[in-house]
Amino acid sequence: MPLSMAKKRICPKCRSTDVSPDLSAESYGKGSMFNAYKCNKCGYRGEFFPEVDA
Ligand SMILES: [Zn+2]
């Protein structure tokens, strides 16, 4: 059974899947541009966005 199934990141706050990588200058400054995500629905930004099976 393949383990590389499509995963979706969800917003921990509103559970929306409308999440995109946060490439803002703030994230660059923190050195976490590869880990930061932003919720396009509620605007929550952070590094902890759980992945769920699509
Ligand atoms: Zn959200």
Lay out the secondary structure:
Elements: E1 7-9, E2 19-21, H1 25-30, E3 37-39, E4 45-46, E5 51-53
Antiparallel strand pairs: 1-5, 2-3, 3-4
The structure holds zinc ion.
Write a brief structural summary:
The protein is an alpha+beta fold. It contains 1 helix and 5 strands, in the order ββαβββ.
Distance between the termini: 16 Å
The SS-based structural class is alpha+beta
Fraction in helix: 10-25%
Q: How would you describe the shape? A: globular
SSE string: EEHEEE
Which ranges are low-confidence, i.e. pLDDT below 50, for 5 or more consecutive residues? Answer: none
Gyration radius (Cα, Å) is 12 Å
CATH architecture: Single Sheet
Tally the structural domains: 1
Quick one: CATH class? Mainly Beta
Helix count equals 1
Bound molecules: zinc ion
Total count of strands: 5
Please summarize the sheet with the most strands: 3 strands, antiparallel
Determine the mean pLDDT. 81
Work out the oligomeric state of the chains in this entry: single chain
Per DSSP, what share of the residues sits in E-state strands of 2 or more residues? 25-35%
**Biggest sheet, spatial arrangement of strands:** 2-3-4
The CATH topology is N-terminal domain of TfIIb
Highlighted features:
globular; N-terminal domain of TfIIb; single chain; 54 residues; three-stranded antiparallel β-sheet; 26% strand; binds zinc ion; two-stranded antiparallel sheet; alpha+beta
What would you say this structure looks like, in words?
With 54 residues, the protein is of the alpha+beta class. The protein has a single domain (7-47), classed as N-terminal domain of TfIIb (Single Sheet), CATH 2.20.25. It contains one helix and five strands, in the order ββαβββ. The strands form two sheets. It has a three-stranded antiparallel sheet with strand order 2-3-4, with no helix packed on it. It has a two-stranded antiparallel sheet with strand order 1-5. The longest helix is centred in the middle third of the chain and has 6 residues, at 25-30. The protein is globular, with a radius of gyration of 12 Å. The structure holds zinc ion.
